[in-house]
Amino acid sequence: MDYQSIINEIADEVSPLLKDGKVADYIPALAGINQNQFAMSLTLFDGTQFSVGQADTLFSIQSISKVFSFTLALKFYNTDLYKRIGHEPSGNPFNSLVQLEYEHGKPRNPFINAGAINVTDALINHYGTCKTAYEEVLGFIRAISDDESICSNEIVAASEMEHGYRNLALANLMKSFNNLDNRVEDVVGTYFKHCSLEMSTKMLSRAMLYLANDGVDPILGVTYLTPSQSRRINAVMLTCGHYDASGDFAFNVGLPGKSGVGGGIVAVVPNVMGLSVWSPGLNAQGNSLVGTKALELFTDKTGLSIF
Ligand code: DON
User: Fold this and answer.
1) 165 an active-site residue?
2) 9, CA 20 to 30 Å: which among 38, 192, 194, 237?
3) What are the pLDDT digits (tens) for 146-192?
């Protein structure tokens, strides 16, 4: 398949839509970004990459980091993790509080904010300190990307903390139900540091390979997860990776995927490739508008949906 021609064609087709989204301004440090940007990359199992657009530009990975923290938590806690976090779609916005109250402080899944904050709490328990939990997630992301240059953006992390009332409310609510062990500010601060990591679509498409290959990095041969754990992460990405638009994403794209409010999306074609798109303008559910469209065109043109 001529992947380069296909993604070039996609870049042309989505360019009229670049003006339609809206950048995430609830994080002031992300509000000023030029939304007229687009990148798409794919990485095959032998390391071959195809890219179009600003595929080397670093952007804030935000909720895409939830895939990586969930991976580490699942590796250490396995199915015990589901005592504190579910694996059902929420049907609600990523930062919603209401369901958490009804459901006694147990987040529906690891990809809504409450779930990812809870995963961070579990990682702090496992590693002993916030600093180590942050560094281990960073180390894991560097390993799966085979790139030691990946760093967090302290300005973005501080901006989120300064305006993080809703996430602090979610953490406090979980704490009130005895479903958070560490100090609220410490857990949320560590979560924000993971969210503020910066990567490009080239790096992210490479980082997703372990999930396309049953938990094993096909290039370096490193095993991160069992096949069953890896498949379950893909199942949760498919059903919960785009919050209250997860059904739409499964319907229109047909791949396990995870979005972030920085405008990035990662996806996997099982047994074939890792994929990433980026365009900062978001749709009403907080997912990249152009990125979603680009992935929809990709599976239409290649037939590579899982269905
Ligand atoms: O906690 C937040 O609101 C952000 N750090 C992450 C949210 C996010 O990326 C939602 N994704 N589309």
Assistant:
1) no
2) 237
3) 999 999 999 999 999 999 999 999 999 999 999 999 999 999 999 99
Which of 166, 195, 224 is the C-terminal boundary of a domain?
Answer: 195
Q: Tally the domains of the chain.
A: 2
* 291 Cα–ligand 1 center, Å: 16
pLDDT of residue 161: 95
Residue 141 beta carbon below 6 angstroms from any ligand 1 atom: no
Q: 167 among the known binding-site residues?
A: yes
pLDDT per position as a tens digit, 63-77: 999 999 999 999 999
Threshold 0.90, pTM exceeds: yes
Give nearest CA residue, ligand 1 atom 2: 113
Instruction: Judge whether 191 counts as a catalytic residue.
Output: yes
Residues 34 and 111 grouped into a single domain = no
Same-domain status, 150 and 247? no
Query: Cα angle vertex 303, ends 66, 215, to 5°?
Result: 35
* ipTM topping 0.95: yes
Residue at 167: amino acid letter: N
Same domain? For 203 and 189 the reply is no
109 touches 96 (CB < 8 A): no
